[in-house]
Every structure is written in C-alpha cells, then in structure tokens.
Write a structure and sequence with these properties.
Elements lengths: L3 E4 L5 E5 L2 E5 L14 H23 L5 E12 L4 E12 L3 H14 L1 H8 L9
Antiparallel strand pairs: 1-2, 2-3, 4-5
Helix pairs in contact: 1-2
Amino acid sequence: MQIKIKQTGDTTSQAVVREHRVIIDRPTEKGGHDKGPMGGELLLIGLGGCFMSNLLAAIKARKTDITGVETVVSAILVDSPPQIDAINIAVSAQYSDFSVLKKLITIAERNCIVSNTLRRGLQITININ
C-alpha cells in the first residue's frame, strides 16, 4: 500500500489514494482552516473503516439478518508526547441473535489489518528525499 500527500495550503494537504482524494487540515482552534480531519482523526477513521468493512463482509458472507450497523470510534488522548492512549469501538445494529453478532464482531476484529497492526506496534521511519 502506498499513498501520496501533498501540501495544498498553509495548513492543508491532500492525500491521494488510488482515485480518491482526502483533505487533511487542523481545526481553527489549532491554527488551521478546518477543511478536513486531522491525522489522528484519520487514524480512527482508518481503524473504524477497516473494522466495519470486515464486519459487513462477514455479515454478507453468512447471509445474516443483521442490519443498520453503526460504530462509534473513541480515543483517549495523552500528552508528552501527544498520542492516543486507548481506543474503543462501540458497535450497534439490529439483530435477532446476539451470539451471531458477537461472533461476527470477533471475526471482523481478527481480520482488520489496522487493529492487528496497532495492537502489535510497528517501526516507523522518516526519510528525506
């Protein structure tokens, strides 16, 4: 996987993913123009989107009657250095069998690249080209 991010303003950038574009910015209270989410918010979007994609695929593959799936991804922030200390994904849906939903949530969690990566941690390098 690879994405490209290019500056488009004094606080704004644009990510290009395949044929998709995502604007990244800071909120006005942090000196930005609030034209898009910040990187930390995009991290939560990535986690929630990955989990949701896997959950919907598991629901579809098993032809269950689970509908109206919604997740709320919440993070606890800490300082020094600024980072996310904990993340929670709350799932709600219409379902007839709780045990089926619980099983599919476990399957989605085990297959989510983002949650698997965040749990184990990873090495990040920064180079100057």
